Amino acid sequence: MAARIPAEERLTNLVVALMATEIGLTKQQILDNVSGYRQRADAGTRSDALEKMFERDKDELRSLGVPIETIGDAADPNDLREARYRIPQAEYDLPSDIEFTPAELAVLRLAGSVWSAESVSGDAQSGVRKIRALGIDGDEPIIGFAPRITARDAAFSPLQDAIERGRVVTFDYLKPGEDSPRRRRIRPLALVDYEARWHVYGEDVEVEEDRTFLLSRIVGDVTLTSTPFDPALREGAGERALSGLERVAAQNSALLEVTPGTEAALRLGRRATAASQGIRVPFVDLHILADELASYGPEVRVVEPEPLRDAVVSRLRAVVAAHSDEGGLS
């Protein structure tokens, strides 16, 4: 049985394939040649299920800002039976008038150092070769590059798999202030990235209510059960999850004083609004924000709310105590 290709790798291979062609690929060419779809087809997955997977992947990439273009029949643009799909590089590239400071360029080079030709996916290369064998043009420089590291939580892949297969999952979840994790049983409907952290949104089976869980608080493995759920529940789930997180953030904000020109000013300023005493930053989870603010050290000071200030001070004191203990041992 062919190994299952992770969803994130399938999406990467799809982007590579769609950027590698100027005239575009038909849906069938994608399903036959792009790694992630091809393996499922070889394993006997029905064509209608593969087409639905492609439609979901296409929608997810578009929601992330990837400009996937649909090219229909010139004589009848509404006839999409033989439509071709591509990613126009002119729309995907950065605008020519964007300039970077030396510091920003240094960061970009550092980020780029985790990409290399040695990390080329064999499946991606094979897919591109098959695309070329069809007589479709390709652009060599963007073929087959894949990241060697991932910033996603360990729970991401099994949850993505459960969402695609429409299966209930269980996992242990540890909330701040609790001594031990609690077992959760949910119908996972969407994975969303909010404030640079991944969340899973779904229905809690025990209480039959919608819940959002932070992946970094999942303890241990995610278990895929044999219990299915209606795939229709996934429709619009990502939008509902983000709307819920945005509502929570709108109800909570921190007043911060930040040292100009620092990393804290750069990162916090992206999501902040100006205030008379500094900046206001909306937040979803006090403990997560406290972790972030403590990592900036003296670059940021919490004015309000008081519980957030206390949480940051507590973290900083713990760091000082830990280093003091290390000094005593030496």
Mean pLDDT, rounded to whole units?
79
- Label the overall shape: globular
Distance between the termini: 55 Å
Report the strand count: 12
- How many helices does DSSP assign? 12
Report the uncertain regions: 113-121, 128-151
The biggest beta sheet reads:
5 strands, antiparallel
Q: What strand line-up does the widest sheet have?
A: 7-6-5-4-8
Keyword list:
alpha+beta; single chain; 330 residues; 4-stranded antiparallel sheet
Summed up, what is this model?
With 330 residues, this protein is of the alpha+beta class. 41% of the residues lie in helices and 22% in strands. Residues 113-121 and 128-151 have low confidence and may be disordered.
Describe the protein in words.
The protein has 330 residues and is of the alpha+beta class. It contains 12 helices and 12 strands. It has helices at residues 7-19, 27-33, 38-42, 47-63, 89-92, 102-112, 122-133, 156-165, 237-250, 263-269, 286-295, 306-329; strands spanning 25-26, 69-71, 84-86, 167-173, 182-194, 197-204, 209-214, 218-228, 253-258, 273-275, 278-282, 300-304. The strands form 3 sheets. A 5-stranded antiparallel sheet has the order 7-6-5-4-8. The chain has a 4-stranded antiparallel sheet with strand order 10-11-9-12. Strands 1-3-2 form a 3-stranded antiparallel sheet. Helix 11 (286-295) crosses helix 12 (306-329).
